[in-house]
Write a structure and sequence with these properties.
Helices cover 56% and strands 10% of the residues. The chain has a 6-stranded parallel sheet with strand order 3-2-1-4-5-6, sandwiched between helices. It has 307 residues and is α/β, with parallel strands linked by helices. It has 14 helices and 9 strands. The chain is globular and about 65 Å long. It folds into 2 domains: 14-174, 3-Layer(aba) Sandwich (Rossmann fold), CATH 3.40.50; 179-301, N-(1-d-carboxylethyl)-l-norvaline Dehydrogenase, domain 2, CATH 1.10.1040.10.
Length: 307
């Protein structure tokens, strides 16, 4: 099925979004707010309805999105999902595929992205590796960074779109470098999140106000974006709605570990915090925000000792 593509590539024209979850849904909403015509698709009817309420058009399939947009963003939960979407796009008519750029925003293995890049290249469709740095809360306010890699002219064409839903889009070179950078960023997030929980608990157990902790400790040399974002959740002990669910984060932790092992790099801090995330999932908190590791540290610490 053929569809009209509005406006020049990278202009405030038609952009497709495949996958309308926490990240994709926020991206679609921000693109609409920036003046883009947005066409989206998700397997979940509830997410489709939310996208329509936010001003996006929704269609019946991933292929239908690609037929309507010059630039398509994919925000997907698994390798299987990317395989299916790429296969569907590759079977579009030559007319619908002409000039199409697909920017893959998910955190997935590099070999999966590379395989699908090659499949789409045979169909003369360009796939870029452009994972995101940021949480769902950051996505909601346009505070994402897109790690762009792959064909440079295509990345440059996509820049206005990336900046319509985020604050930066550094170009990192050859395909796959975006995902490598995302793994490094996620390693830091994994460690900083547990470090934030550990510091918050130590302060609270010693009589400091958790809100004051967030304000004062976060503004000093020990602060981080993770402390800034997750410290307040820990202070309130409020982990829903999740900006990054613990069960999804387990997938990201596995990818970082495999990436590090393949290069022979030691990751002692990642190894030290991994059991804490696993314990949170085992405790039935998989649907909660990763800030819920605070509760696991509380359990490990037991009751506050008497002074």
């Amino acid at each position: 099925m053929s569809g009209a593509r509005d406006g020049p590539a990278g202009g405030a024209g038609s952009v497709g979004v495949i996958g309308l979850g926490i990240m994709g849904g926020a991206i679609a909403r921000n693109l609409v707010a920036a003046g883009h015509t947005v066409c989206g698709y998700d397997l979940d009817p509830t997410r489709m309805e939310a996208a329509r309420q936010n001003g996006a058009e929704t269609v019946e399939s991933a292929g239908a999105v690609a037929a309507r947009a010059k630039i398509v963003l994919t925000s997907l939960p698994s390798t299987q999902a990317l395989d299916q979407v790429a296969a569907e796009i590759a079977t579009l008519s030559a007319t619908d595929r002409t000039g199409l750029i697909v920017a893959e925003l998910s955190t997935l293995p590099i070999d999966c992205k590379t395989a699908n890049r090659d499949i789409l290249a045979k169909a003369e469709v360009i796939l870029l590796d452009c994972p995101l740095s940021g949480t769902g809360a950051q996505a909601a306010v346009g505070d994402l960074v897109t790690y762009a890699s792959g064909d440079e002219p295509s990345c440059r064409t996509c820049e206005p779109v990336f900046l319509a839903y985020g604050r930066a889009c550094p170009y990192l070179g050859e395909f796959g470098n975006g995902t490598k950078m995302k793994f490094i960023a996620n390693l830091l997030v994994a460690v900083h999140n547990v470090a934030t929980a550990e510091a918050m608990l130590l302060g609270v157990r010693n009589g400091l106000d958790p809100n004051v902790l967030c304000e004062v400790a976060g503004s000093g040399a020990g602060g981080s974006r993770v402390f800034e974002l997750r410290g307040p959740l820990m202070a309130r002990e409020q982990y829903e709605p999740a900006t990054m669910k613990l069960d999804i984060w387990q997938k990201d932790m596995r990818l970082i570990r495999e990436f590090a092992e393949a290069s022979g790099s030691a990751t002692p801090l990642l190894s030290a915090c991994a059991p804490i995330y696993a314990a949170a999932v085992e405790a039935g908190r998989g649907h909660e925000d990763t800030a819920a590791v605070y509760e696991i540290l509380k359990q490990l610490s037991g009751k506050k000792p008497r002074s």
